[in-house]
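This part of the workshop introduces the protein records we will be handling. An example says more than a description, so a record of this kind follows.
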Amino acid sequence: MTSINSYKDLIVWQKAMQLVKEIYKITKQLPKHELYILTSQMLRASISIPSNISEGFKRNHKNEYRQFLGMANASAGELETQILIAKHEYPKLDFNQAELLVIEVQKILHTIILKLSP
């Protein structure tokens, strides 16, 4: 078993970083009029996921860590909704990888949160 010395060792953080890259790739394909609407919302939500995972990991208490993982999970839910909206509005774009990653990240976060719960 591999020891976890950094948030960078966490599979969920690694997957969340892959998700950010995928969202950047997608949002670069969105029309310019979406820049301050869907593009900024999707980027903000996606970046929030690994950011909250890493910040929570650096906290000194399990309860704080769980709270930040909850915020990451909430951002993942927000992003999933935005992906669904974008998929509806721009059906020619490929959202498959983003959808798979956001669901996987949410499942992992949910499991970790449950394991950290009292």
